[in-house]
Amino acid sequence: xxxxxxxxxxxxxxxxxxxxxxxxxxxxxxxxxxxxxxxxxxxxxxxxxxxxxxxxxxxxxxxxxxxxxxxxxxxxxxxxxxxxxxxxxxxxxxxxxxxxxxxxxxxxxxxxxxxxxxxxxxxxxxxxxxxxxxxxxxxxxxxxxxxxxxxxxxxxxxxxxxxxxxxxxxxxxxxxxxxxxxxxxxxxxxxxxxxxxxxxxxxxxxxxxxxxxxxxxxxxxxxxxxxxxxxxxxxxxxxxxxxxxxxxxxxxxxxxxxxxxxxxxxxxxxxxxxxxxxxxxxxxxxxxxxxxxxxxxxxxxxxxxxxxxxxxxxxxxxxxxxxxxxxxxxxxxxxxxxxxxxxxxxxxxxxxxxxxxxxxxxxxxxxxxxxxxxxxxxxxxxxxx
Length: 385
Known about the structure:
With 385 residues, the protein is of the alpha/beta class. It is 38% helix and 26% strand. The protein has a single domain (5-172, 268-380), classed as 3-Layer(bba) Sandwich (FAD/NAD(P)-binding domain). It has helices spanning 13-24, 49-57, 61-67, 90-96, 105-115, 162-166, 234-241, 247-255, 285-288, 297-314, 319-348, 353-365, 368-380, and strands at residues 5-9, 28-32, 44-47, 73-78, 83-88, 101-104, 120-121, 126-131, 136-140, 145-148, 150-153, 173-185, 195-201, 204-211, 215-223, 262-268, 276-277, 280-282. Helix 1 packs parallel to helix 5.
């Protein structure tokens, strides 16, 4: 198509990846975000191979390798520290053609900001959209208006633009558990530095993953009723929730810095009925926020950006046609991931205690290659095989 102008709302992982892909395709792009300064939500993210491949396609593979952690194995352990399963990730890497990288979110966002060849306009809260046959205009609270040929709504799980696209308000759905996450110095008394260690028991979970600069990205999951009052002393709160768990779990609780630890009630969005209206396309969490139990949230946003760019580049039948093609491909893929991630969240966190108990037993007897092929199935269902 001719030289399109694209307005992107949201400068998270999805918005920035899309901005980079569109600029590399030769389109004019403006990226806006409502915040005064960009601070990513959450401390870390596991970027599986499908997300990394999108970055490879955008020429960012080498930079990603520098900020990603060296994760060679996954180890499942009981709450008291007995090994349930030790999974070599090399068969997965060979099957899908790319290693995964756990990464600190600030490192990932900074890498994407550095790679985006333009200014991200901050402190611009989008409050409305106007559309006609010629184009689409984003209206901002500060009075600014940005007009383009299409608008990408990458404005997150609490998207303002989702209601415009769907014609109804969709509230995020509680994923039944609370997650504490942060970064801590890596040391062997916590976990092997090349492994993803996951402790499970009592419908709870503790995880440590290696990221760059000799750190672990950690998280704790506890199933709690929505709106459970926050106890500001995270160390003693977690010590209570994980009383009697293995020594490395206790050491992690002692060492975490509560002022740099996030506490999040996990929610998801979808599956929804559509991702596109006219010249406006939902992308990333605004369309399909997932429970983080598959590690696919950021990866799906990256895939969205790549697929959207491909359709805009490869059709001459107009913007709306390209967006319909994008919706048809991405709705099916992302709906499946949202549903699979929710089922996994429920299985891990004791929504049906019998199912969770069976999962614990399965972990102890499962062939490691069954685990890696289940992960690779999710990865290979995406646009980059």
